[in-house]
């Protein structure tokens, strides 16, 4: 580990400091290796509405959201995401929900250069709700992805919305990069809520986003079919949603 010039140094000095130098270089090499093995990132978003599968979660009001995410070269990922919510107009029967916190753990692998698969377990937490309104629930997500351009996802919950009934969500999404860091996005989803709400519905989105530095600006048209409005009323009507997200990470 020493160059020839180091050998002219007094042997006593070498004896005293070589362990320190060795450990320092090993630690630096380990740090450099570890830095390539994992990534941390954080996001902050301001949006005109919080839309979840075609339905507003804020009664069509603006939202502020944030996330912290970890990913490892092994395919393991974990994170936490939060947003303000509002499901009901204030009143005697209000569930008092005003915040959502999602905690997730996932794992993904590359099948080859084109295809990858991943699975994620999510816990949706609604803290501070009324004593008779437990809205926390779990969901398992699995997706197949082609070149990071097209993805097919299935979400399964045996207690969707904590109703103690099954809900299954199917979604196909895609994106098309254009010039000047512009990306077109589109998705269609089908939410099977026959057991939980005695009906199912479709949701659609078509949008565009542009990135500049740490910021990504998005605009999207979002809508559901008639069954969506039948289930959720005005908060499932068509709308245009704007958002700006700042992303920071190593």
UniProtKB/TrEMBL annotation:
Keywords: Signal. Residues 1-29 form the signal peptide. The lineage of its organism: Bacteria, Pseudomonadati, Pseudomonadota, Gammaproteobacteria, Alteromonadales. This is TIGR02001 family outer membrane protein. NCBIfam families: gcw_chp. It comes from Paraglaciecola arctica BSs20135. InterPro entries: CHP02001.
């Amino acid at each position: 580990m020493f160059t020839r010039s180091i050998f002219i140094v007094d042997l006593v000095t070498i004896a005293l400091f070589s362990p320190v130098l060795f450990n320092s270089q090993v630690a630096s090499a380990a740090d450099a290796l570890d830095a390539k093995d994992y990534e941390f990132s954080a996001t902050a978003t301001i949006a005109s509405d919080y839309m979840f599968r075609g339905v507003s979660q804020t009664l069509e009001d603006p939202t502020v959201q944030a996330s912290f995410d970890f990913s490892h070269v092994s395919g393991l990922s974990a994170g936490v995401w939060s947003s303000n919510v509002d499901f009901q107009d204030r009143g005697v029967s209000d569930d008092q929900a005003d915040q959502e916190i999602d905690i997730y753990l996932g794992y993904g692998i590359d099948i080859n250069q084109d295809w990858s698969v991943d699975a994620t377990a999510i816990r949706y937490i609604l803290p501070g709700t009324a004593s008779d309104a437990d809205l926390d629930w779990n969901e398992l997500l699995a997706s197949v992805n082609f070149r990071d351009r097209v993805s097919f996802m299935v979400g399964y919950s045996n207690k969707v919305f904590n109703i103690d009934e099954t809900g299954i969500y199917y979604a196909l999404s895609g994106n098309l990069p254009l010039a000047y860091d512009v990306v077109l996005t589109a998705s269609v989803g089908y939410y099977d809520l026959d057991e939980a709400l005695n009906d199912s519905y479709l949701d659609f989105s078509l949008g565009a986003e542009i990135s500049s530095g740490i910021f990504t600006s998005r605009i999207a048209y979002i809508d559901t079919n008639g069954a969506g409005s039948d289930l959720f009323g005005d908060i499932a009507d068509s709308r245009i949603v704007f958002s700006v997200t700042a992303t920071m990470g190593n």
